[in-house]
Each structure stands twice: as structure tokens, then as C-alpha cells.
Specification:
It contains eight helices and no strands. The chain is mainly alpha-helical. The longest helix is centred in the N-terminal third of the chain and has 31 residues.
Length: 196
């Protein structure tokens, strides 16, 4: 008797991982933006601490490259649609959506791929490589948009903004170094424990 693909435990687990990652990637930036509004810093905490990246990277590490890729592609689109539907300022802004989608997809895909290729490599090393890859994907997308397609969007598409985004996000990068290995080790440890 054949079972459907959706009844496969591995598919269920991976689907759940994508779903949880997307929910967290939509909710966490809202928390940071609320904190920014309350503190008077506006959108700065979101740009500084990069909250959307954490769930996507974790999804890649736990679920593999396809799960990371899906979480990276869906998270900004769902966030954009959710905030726009509520009548809030769309997050991310419309002109940023393609760049963020490619960047997040790069993070999630590379995190999952590295864990699959060499599962014994320390998570921290894979995390740094995934961070560099995601930033490189965004940089290439910006350069193509500006020099090949000829788009002349606001500041985020300027070539200088590539470096500015990295510098502004340094606290978020350090936060990822501290949190993501702990989250991944904890989650993998829970998966390996037998149920009582």
C-alpha cells in the first residue's frame, strides 16, 4: 500500500521546519521594529540585528539545502504580504524584496548544503561560510540590477550600500554567531533523544 508524499515522516518534518522558520522570520522582525518604535530608533534595530536571517539559517542547518532555500524564499514574501495586508509599512519594502529574497535563499541553501556535504564540520565554520555566501549573492544581485539591468532605485541598490549593510549588520552577525550554534546543537540533541 503506497503512502502519499505528505505522509512521509521526513517530508512532514521538513515541511514543519519550513513553516516554523517562516513564522519566526515574520514575527522576529516585528518584535525588533516594535522595540525600535518604542525606543525611538525606528527601523534601526531590524537592520542592525538581522532577525529574519536567524530562522532561515537554522532551518538550513536542521533541514538541509531545500528546506533552507524554501525558508529563505518564502520568509520575505510572507512578511511583505502580511504587513501590507495589515496596512502597515511593508517589510521588507517592495524595492528591497528581490534582494532580500535572494540573500535569504542563499543563506538557507548554503547552510543546508554545507551540513549535508560535511556534517562533521563545526557549525560555526559553516555559519560563517553561509553568511559570506548570502552576502555575496545579495552583492551580485545589486551589481546586476545597477550595471546590467540599469535599475536606479533608492539607496539600497547603490553599490556603496553593499558595504554599508554589512557594517550596519555587524551586531546581528555576532548575535548569529552566539545563538545559531546553540540553537542547532540543542535541536539536534533533542532529535537524537529517544521519546519516553
Amino acid at each position: 500500500m503506497k503512502t502519499s508524499v505528505l505522509q512521509n515522516p521526513a517530508v512532514k518534518t521538513k515541511s514543519l521546519t519550513v513553516l516554523i522558520a517562516v513564522i519566526c522570520a515574520v514575527a522576529l522582525p516585528q518584535v525588533f521594529h516594535i522595540l525600535g518604535a518604542v525606543s525611538g530608533f525606528g527601523a534601526m534595530p531590524g537592520a542592525t540585528f538581522l532577525p529574519m536571517q536567524i530562522p532561515v539559517l537554522v532551518a538550513g542547518f536542521l533541514g538541509g539545502p531545500i528546506v533552507g532555500l524554501l525558508a529563505g524564499v518564502l520568509s520575505p514574501a510572507v512578511s511583505f504580504g502580511f504587513t501590507a495586508a495589515l496596512g502597515l509599512d511593508a517589510m521588507p519594502a517592495g524595492f528591497m524584496l528581490p534582494y532580500m529574497t535572494l540573500e535569504l535563499a542563499g543563506y538557507g541553501f548554503m547552510a543546508g548544503l554545507l551540513c549535508k556535504i560535511n556534517p562533521k564540520m563545526p557549525i560555526f565554520v559553516n555559519l560563517v561560510i553561509a553568511q559570506l555566501f548570502g552576502r555575496a549573492v545579495r552583492a551580485v544581485a545589486v551589481l546586476i540590477a545597477v550595471y546590467v539591468i540599469g535599475l536606479n532605485n533608492p539607496a539600497p541598490t547603490a553599490v556603496a550600500s553593499i558595504w554599508e549593510a554589512v557594517v550596519a549588520g555587524l551586531p546581528g552577525i555576532v548575535l548569529q554567531w552566539a545563538l545559531i550554534p546553540l540553537i542547532v546543537y540543542r535541536a539536534k540533541g533533542m532529535k537524537q533523544k529517544p521519546l519516553a
